[in-house]
Each structure stands twice: as C-alpha cells, then as structure tokens.
Amino acid sequence: MASLDQSRNLVTEIPGPASLELNKRRSAAVSSSVGVTLPVFVARAGGGVIEDVDGNRLIDLGSGIAVTTIGNSSPAVVDAVRRQVAEFTHTCFMVTPYESYVAVAEELNRITPGDGEKRSVLFNSGAEAVENAVKVARSYTRKSAVVAFDHAYHGRTNMAMALTAKSMPYKSGFGPFAPEIYRAPLSYPYRDGLIDKELATDGEKAAARAISVMDKQVGVRNLAAVIIEPIQGEGGFIVPAEGFLPTLVEWCRENDVVFIADEVQTGFARTGAMFACEHEGPNGLEPDVIVTAKGIADGLPLSAITGRAEIMDAAHTGGLGGTFGGNPVACAAALATIATIESEGLVQRAAQLEPLLTEPLLRLQASDDRIGDVRGRGAMIAIELVKSGTVDPDPELTTKLATAAHAAGVIVLTCGMFGNIIRLLPPLTITDELLTEGVEVLTGLLAEL
C-alpha cells in the first residue's frame, strides 16, 4: 500500500456522502446501543492521519483510544502478522501451545516494573485482564474485597463495570453487579485544591484519606486487592499528587493487599515512560500485578496480566485462560510492537510530544478562564473545561468543541465523570507539524466558541 500523505485535507463536509450512506447501513444492521464518536468510515490510516471513504484526511489525536501508539498498520507489525497468518491462525494455547505466546510473556516480564521473578498470562481485552487480575489476587490472599477509586474506569464486563465509577453510559441498567467492590477517594489535584490547597499537592495526605476509608469501610482483613490506574483514563487523565501512589503501595505491602496497576491506557510508552508507574517516586513504582492491553499489539486484540511469580502462580492449574487468549496473530503483532517502541525510541518520542501538546494549551489558559486545568504526561494530555468565572464543569462547551474539531478534520475524544474533558492521544509516530496543526485547530475553535 502506498504511504498515506501526512496532511489534513477535507474534500467534503464531515461526514461526507459515502460515510452517510454507510451510516444508513450501520443503523439498519448494528445495534443502536453501540455509540459512535465521529461517523466517518475509515478507508486507510497511518502515521498521524486517518483517511475516510470520501477521501478526507483527518488528523488523528485519538489513536483508537490509545491503541495505535506506534502508528496504524506499522510496517513491522504488518510484516509479522502476514508471516503468522500464513503459518497458522489459531490452535488455542491451552490445547497445543506455541512459542510466540511464551515470547510475549517473556517480554512483558522483562519490560514491566520490578526486577523480581515474574509470570504473565494473556487475554483478549483490558476488561478481561482486569477480571483475571482480581481472580489472581483473591486466590493469593484468600480474601474477597476489592477497592477501586473515584472516577475509575476498568471496563464493561460485569466485574469491570462494578469497578468502574461512572454510571452513564457504562453501568446504567446493567446491574446487579459483582459484590465485594468498594470505592475510595482518589487524589485529584485540580478538584482537591478547590477544597484544600494542601490536599492538592500532598499525595501522602490524599493517600491517608483513602486509607482511612479502606480501613473503616472494608477492613484490611477482608481486602484482597486495590486496583488503580496510575493516570486515570476515561475518568479524565487525572495525575495523582506526588506521593499518593507510593504511599498506597507501601500500605498494601504492610497489610497483605495486592496492588494492581491498571495500565491499559497508560502502558507501552504512552506517558513518556514504558509504563506510567515508572514516573512515581525516585525509583518508580513496582505494582504486584500490572494489567495491560490497548497499545500492546498496535490494534490487534490482546491483553495481559503480569506480576510477581508467587502471586501469579497462586491460582490452580486451569483456573486462568480462554479460547482466544494470546492468539498467535496478536502475539506476533505484540512482539513487533514492543520491538518498534524500543528500536525507534518511542518512549523518548512521547516525552518530546508533551510540550507540543501542553504549551499552546497553557498559553491559551492564561487568557481563557474556561480552561480549568491542563494535565497529563507524555502523549496523554487533557483539557478540563469549566464555565467562565467558575470551576463548574462545562460538558456543553466540551461537546461543542469536540464536534467543531471533528468538522474541521481533527479527531479528539471526550471523557471525565462530568463529561467536561477533551483528551489528546496522538500516535507517537505523528509528525511535529501535524500535531502542532491539530492543536492549533483545537485552540482556535475554542477561542471562537
């Protein structure tokens, strides 16, 4: 396939006539319960561009929700997948295993935080990995309670929905949910600072608040695991105050509680480190179990849990697995993805993209009080929008800004418990020029609105 021109180019309105025709077919054939952010149908994608069926080229600041981190259809991944498809597509690792599954596990054990002996298990989706991480923690501790945090998002399966905080659209009407799930307050520096300035900057104080809730409402004798996103994804790209996560980890270690880091959205170079846990404390954070998916295989469905060997080996033989878990084609893609991240210096690239994203937004924030907060790490940056003269969330403005950006050929995503956050997740292979243009379009539209 010829390389895709890395420029924004609109030849029709968005969506164009061919996309509108396909949307009619979608409405007639696909359940209306599946939402669509931007109803343009994709023909090709690569680098920082998505081309639709009408020939429009859009700047991609979403990466399929942090999935195509190394760029859509990365050449190394395409080659690896072609080779594997020609050999075999499936045997089920639990029936007749194959080397690529083992190789992915070895790579995950190598690159995830911590130097001790580790084990990995492969699954299909982030939600499935979250569920299995909880199973592992319960097997290891022989306890049942699990604590998740305010604003958390952990997936759409039953256990994952219970762990997720936001009702609409993820949980409403789908209960009853898995029992023995509890919630603790997160460190949310922007919102915490509106109540208590010290709480906004003192992560240890914020952690003490959460620990008090866990002690009183759950009790450590009942608590199997604490699960948390090191930077919250769907919850609003919330970066906890310094000291919050290390204090939680220390408390978990002292009380035989498994600390699970959900790095589904933050993993694989997204934040300017291979994993977001590495940003925490002087030597980084070492979770007991780490959950990964999204960016692991450049768009092929794969997820994993990796953790300390004694925890990961606690479940009985046959207790973990699944028909498609660690599919050989997805494993080939994952090996090529990890190799590409390392050989092309994409961890460093994510760090380089951070000022290109944040500096224009911070400049605008200085003159526009509707930008309440600009936050995130690496190529994972969010804008929290509020009503002028207040700190009240402004979901209406957020929707208008996202819609206007889409019409102008820039793909952005919204998120947050209050629906007032624009999140930016460009592929790490996007050019500086294209990223700068995308952010300029966004800031220009906000000034106009």
Automatic annotation (TrEMBL):
<comment type="similarity">
    <text>Belongs to the class-III pyridoxal-phosphate-dependent aminotransferase family.</text>
</comment>
<dbReference type="InterPro" id="IPR015424">
    <property type="entry name" value="PyrdxlP-dep_Trfase"/>
</dbReference>
<dbReference type="Pfam" id="PF00202">
    <property type="entry name" value="Aminotran_3"/>
</dbReference>
<dbReference type="InterPro" id="IPR004632">
    <property type="entry name" value="4NH2But_aminotransferase_bac"/>
</dbReference>
<keyword id="KW-0055">Arginine biosynthesis</keyword>
<dbReference type="GO" id="GO:0009448">
    <property type="term" value="P:gamma-aminobutyric acid metabolic process"/>
</dbReference>
<dbReference type="InterPro" id="IPR005814">
    <property type="entry name" value="Aminotrans_3"/>
</dbReference>
<dbReference type="InterPro" id="IPR015422">
    <property type="entry name" value="PyrdxlP-dep_Trfase_small"/>
</dbReference>
<keyword id="KW-0032">Aminotransferase</keyword>
<keyword id="KW-0663">Pyridoxal phosphate</keyword>
<dbReference type="InterPro" id="IPR050103">
    <property type="entry name" value="Class-III_PLP-dep_AT"/>
</dbReference>
<keyword id="KW-0028">Amino-acid biosynthesis</keyword>
<dbReference type="GO" id="GO:0030170">
    <property type="term" value="F:pyridoxal phosphate binding"/>
</dbReference>
<dbReference type="InterPro" id="IPR049704">
    <property type="entry name" value="Aminotrans_3_PPA_site"/>
</dbReference>
<comment type="pathway">
    <text>Amino-acid degradation; 4-aminobutanoate degradation.</text>
</comment>
<dbReference type="GO" id="GO:0034386">
    <property type="term" value="F:4-aminobutyrate:2-oxoglutarate transaminase activity"/>
</dbReference>
<dbReference type="GO" id="GO:0047298">
    <property type="term" value="F:(S)-3-amino-2-methylpropionate transaminase activity"/>
</dbReference>
<dbReference type="GO" id="GO:0042802">
    <property type="term" value="F:identical protein binding"/>
</dbReference>
<dbReference type="InterPro" id="IPR015421">
    <property type="entry name" value="PyrdxlP-dep_Trfase_major"/>
</dbReference>
<dbReference type="GO" id="GO:0006526">
    <property type="term" value="P:L-arginine biosynthetic process"/>
</dbReference>
<protein>
    <recommendedName>
        <fullName>(S)-3-amino-2-methylpropionate transaminase</fullName>
        <ecNumber>2.6.1.19</ecNumber>
        <ecNumber>2.6.1.22</ecNumber>
    </recommendedName>
</protein>
<keyword id="KW-0808">Transferase</keyword>
